[in-house]
Amino acid sequence: PLNLSHAQRHKRPSTTLYLLCAYAHSCVWSPQEADGQDRLGLHGEGEADMEGECKAHTPDMPPGDGNTPQCLNRALEGLSSRWKNWWIRGILSLTMITGFFLIIYLGPLMLIFVVMSIQIKCFQEIITIGYRVYHSYELPWFRTLSWYFLICVNYFFYGETVADYFGALVRREEPLQFLVRYHRFISFTLYLAGFCMFVLSLVKKHYRLQFYMFAWTHVTLLIVVTQSHLVIQNLFEGMIWFIVPISTVICNDIMAYLFGFFFGRTPLIKLSPKKTWEGFIGGFFSTVVFSFLFAYLLSQYQYFVCPVEYNSETNRFTVECEPSDLFVMQEYTLPATAQNLLRWKTVNLYPFQIHSIALSTFASLIGPFGGFFASGFKRAFKIKDFADTIPGHGGIMDRFDCQYLMATFVHVYIASFIRGPNPSKVLQQLLALQPEQQLSIFNTLRNHLREKGMLPPAVGLKV
Amino acid sequence: MTELRHRIATENQLQHQSSEDKGSEAEDRVKRDGGVSDSECRPDSGVPEVPVATDDTPEVLNKALSGLSSRWKNWWVRGILTLAMISFFFFIIYLGPMVLMMIVLCVQIKCFHEIITIGYSVYHSYHLPWFRTLSWYFLLCVNYFFYGETVTDYFFTLVQREEPLRILSKYHRFISFTLYLTGFCMFVLSLVKKHYRLQFYMFGWTHVTLLIVVTQSHLIIHNLFEGMIWFIVPISCVICNDIMAYMFGFFFGRTPLIKLSPKKTWEGFIGGFFSTVVFGILVRISETHLSISYRYFVCPVEFNNDSNSFTVDCEPSELFQLQDYTLPSVLQSITGWSTVKLFPFQIHSIALSAFASIMGPFGGFFASGFKRAFKIKDFANTIPGHGGIMDRFDCQYLMATFVNVYIASFIRGPNPTKVIQQLLALRPDQQLHIYNSLKAHLTERGLLATQEEAA
């Protein structure tokens, strides 16, 4: 018997539940990964590095003190600098987490916009670093070209997604149909125009700089835009595939910091001297437990587990469906050792919780590598933070560096272990074939279904 | 071909235009031009001069040409090598798709090696720990990913038969991602305190090279599987454009085309354009009259699992069947014909050759700019007289992508075998749903009633 709780029949969990969760999370999460005092240490490390670096040209980005808002400044002016930093980071963490929940509440469309804005901001931050490293802010055309390439690549990716998910809408509108049919050609033409503009803009004295910036732009696009696109694709599978990975990474950050703070002793890697083995391992176990419980909490609501679909009649996104097997409570017999320990024979779990263990393991073990990569990058280019967008935390990239690999992993995981091909996409392709090919596929499919017993056998078939 | 134009056109300029004294030796001119222009501004410290490569013309050629002056010797070396390369091209086409794939793979590996070596020289990073291993490892990963996707599509039945292959293909993305991730983690663990910036540069350099080289070669293989003609015609168009533009520039060249490559002229560009378009149309007429080899070129390459080999046999699609086209009235009055028999493919080849003539040179300019930026004369010294493999393939860069996009947009629809695969991978209820939709669609079209009676 299915364990349908009362809440499962709701389309969305109640607002009070949200607020409770937010409150609970804020209590646990407010001491953020504040290497507040340690960031000063990092700056010291950076100076030590400077003598060692063989290449000169250190564009020293002025350490951002910040654009802490005036109100916060006034409220905290009594405290010493260290505690002031701690409070700022704490308040901003709370704000960001509340913002996260608010956006989830607002729905998938809002989430897509937020993801896109974050992507644009990350891109801008990295490109700005590139300009400073190469003193290339005044290069002709280059700013225009970077943004142009960003628009092209986004157009290509979003066009591919839109064509898949909005099939019905696209078939209705004539100009959209044309755009979808020749989508690859149009995207390629746009990219080519940018490429030609780049070649034509090569200026005699600045060849090397321009090539550097070209490559910098492309690598940034490769990193930022593909990740954000995969995040959107995961989102369409079901909001839970968006929420659980991101929360897992955030939790790992915070737990590793807490464990390191209280028990930290053995350093983990020379690249980030503040990370410790105790923090790493403690963070790993607590993240697995957290995501296990969090997955249990979210699996009960249709709002989170259903694929996002576009309803062409109402012209809105709907998140309603029959939950797939993954989100239906099942009984698992425990292995003998666990049986002796817990004295339970079987346990009721959502299959998704098993998957969430895999996701959280990845987030704890490999996620930090994304953080090390970003730390190495900041040291290589002698910057303290990517930018100064968030007071006390640095830029958007600073907050999202650990998420970098997570989105790709979730996408690959879904593609390999969870879902098969998308049925509506297969149907689209079918309808685009030649009639003879359609007929032959129809016959193959009919025989296949008959073998499986889904269709009545041929003998008794009457049209 | 660019180098040939450089040197010969330069010497022509010396003879015809005495306005600028650029010195007698072509090599000096190119090197100095690149050097002087950039040396006033050093945006980045330490511009390393990649050592000018020595001449490794084979001994046999050297002996045969020892009598001639240096300039003509150069001409002859280049000419002989050009002929050798073109004959080699035809030879491997004759050998079949399998060999072609191997050749494309080898060319790709060599191009990658050339560009990475330039990166090492630019950054003096040859002794970075791990880095050579990591670059080759990433190349392997990306190739594994791409070839795995292609193989799964085209060798579907073979893959389904063998159990280990089936597992590999089912979890292909996951396996490729794991391999890449291992490389990524090795990179992070290999970061050494004094060399952060260098290591990040080489990491970026490797990725951009992979993006350029591996994706292009993969698209070439895709085009190849559509039919060898989609491989031969684009490459021949680019080669023809190179040669024709050089010829026109040599005989009629006067107005410079772009500051980046001072040897290119507008006359060469336009003359090359028209002659390549004509070449594109004519080559089809001649090839299609070779009835024996005709199918060999136009049929999609398929893997026959009974004979375990590639077969190139099919009923040519309507693209390759002669059709009547009525000429517009303007042409009718000129040529006196009211209709003309053409293969539809020839119309497409006009588009392909137009692209090759107009956009192909941009790939060449890009490579020239790259060489100037990093102060190198040639990418490498693999081919005597011509430079490295990349030098020969720089104009092809965009062509492969264009052909692939062109085919996807204008020629073929989705691949029916692939659709069946996806269908059979769905859940039974989804299959039933699709079955019903398809049945409704076919009944609407009136195709189904006859089939039902026959069944």
TrEMBL record, chain A:
Pfam families: CTP_transf_1 (PF01148). Belongs to the CDS family. GO terms for molecular function: phosphatidate cytidylyltransferase activity. GO terms for biological process: angiogenesis; CDP-diacylglycerol biosynthetic process; positive regulation of ERK1 and ERK2 cascade. InterPro entries: PC_trans, PC_Trfase_euk. Keywords: Lipid biosynthesis, Lipid metabolism, Membrane, Nucleotidyltransferase, Phospholipid biosynthesis, Phospholipid metabolism, Transferase, Transmembrane, Transmembrane helix. Pathway: Lipid metabolism; Phospholipid metabolism; CDP-diacylglycerol biosynthesis; CDP-diacylglycerol from sn-glycerol 3-phosphate: step 3/3. PROSITE patterns: CDS (PS01315). One of its GO terms (cellular component) is endoplasmic reticulum membrane. It comes from Electrophorus electricus. Coiled coil: none annotated. Catalyzes the conversion of phosphatidic acid (PA) to CDP-diacylglycerol (CDP-DAG), an essential intermediate in the synthesis of phosphatidylglycerol, cardiolipin and phosphatidylinositol. It catalyses: 1,2-di-(9Z,12Z-octadecadienoyl)-sn-glycero-3-phosphate + CTP + H(+) = 1,2-di-(9Z,12Z-octadecadienoyl)-sn-glycero-3-cytidine-5'-diphosphate + diphosphate; 1-octadecanoyl-2-(4Z,7Z,10Z,13Z,16Z,19Z-docosahexaenoyl)-sn-glycero-3-phosphate + CTP + H(+) = 1-octadecanoyl-2-(4Z,7Z,10Z,13Z,16Z,19Z-docosahexaenoyl)-sn-glycero-3-cytidine-5'-diphosphate + diphosphate; 1,2-di-(9Z-octadecenoyl)-sn-glycero-3-phosphate + CTP + H(+) = 1,2-di-(9Z-octadecenoyl)-sn-glycero-3-cytidine-5'-diphosphate + diphosphate; 1,2-di-(5Z,8Z,11Z,14Z)-eicosatetraenoyl-sn-glycero-3-phosphate + CTP + H(+) = 1,2-di-(5Z,8Z,11Z,14Z-eicosatetraenoyl)-sn-glycero-3-cytidine-5'-diphosphate + diphosphate. This is Phosphatidate cytidylyltransferase. Its EC number is 2.7.7.41. It comes from the Eukaryota. It is an enzyme of class 2 (transferase). The gene is CDS1.
Automatic annotation (TrEMBL), chain B:
InterPro entries: PC_trans, PC_Trfase_euk. PANTHER family: PHOSPHATIDATE CYTIDYLYLTRANSFERASE (PTHR13773), PHOSPHATIDATE CYTIDYLYLTRANSFERASE 2 (PTHR13773:SF4). Keywords: Lipid biosynthesis, Lipid metabolism, Membrane, Nucleotidyltransferase, Phospholipid biosynthesis, Phospholipid metabolism, Transferase, Transmembrane, Transmembrane helix. Pathway: Phospholipid metabolism; CDP-diacylglycerol biosynthesis; CDP-diacylglycerol from sn-glycerol 3-phosphate: step 3/3; Lipid metabolism. It comes from the Eukaryota. GO terms for biological process: CDP-diacylglycerol biosynthetic process. It comes from Electrophorus electricus. It holds the Pfam family CTP_transf_1. Residues 18-43 have a biased composition (Basic and acidic residues). One of its GO terms (cellular component) is endoplasmic reticulum membrane. This is Phosphatidate cytidylyltransferase. One of its GO terms (molecular function) is phosphatidate cytidylyltransferase activity. The gene is CDS2. Residues 1-54 are annotated as: Disordered. It is a multi-pass membrane protein. It catalyses: 1,2-di-(5Z,8Z,11Z,14Z)-eicosatetraenoyl-sn-glycero-3-phosphate + CTP + H(+) = 1,2-di-(5Z,8Z,11Z,14Z-eicosatetraenoyl)-sn-glycero-3-cytidine-5'-diphosphate + diphosphate; 1-hexadecanoyl-2-(5Z,8Z,11Z,14Z-eicosatetraenoyl)-sn-glycero-3-phosphate + CTP + H(+) = 1-hexadecanoyl-2-(5Z,8Z,11Z,14Z-eicosatetraenoyl)-sn-glycero-3-cytidine-5'-diphosphate + diphosphate; 1-octadecanoyl-2-(5Z,8Z,11Z,14Z-eicosatetraenoyl)-sn-glycero-3-phosphate + CTP + H(+) = 1-octadecanoyl-2-(5Z,8Z,11Z,14Z-eicosatetraenoyl)-sn-glycero-3-cytidine-5'-diphosphate + diphosphate; 1,2-di-(9Z,12Z-octadecadienoyl)-sn-glycero-3-phosphate + CTP + H(+) = 1,2-di-(9Z,12Z-octadecadienoyl)-sn-glycero-3-cytidine-5'-diphosphate + diphosphate. Its main location: membrane. PROSITE patterns: CDS. Its EC number is 2.7.7.41. It is found in: Membrane. Belongs to the CDS family. Catalyzes the conversion of phosphatidic acid (PA) to CDP-diacylglycerol (CDP-DAG), an essential intermediate in the synthesis of phosphatidylglycerol, cardiolipin and phosphatidylinositol. The chain crosses the membrane at residues 75-94, 100-123, 130-147, 174-192, 199-221, 227-253, 265-285, 345-367.
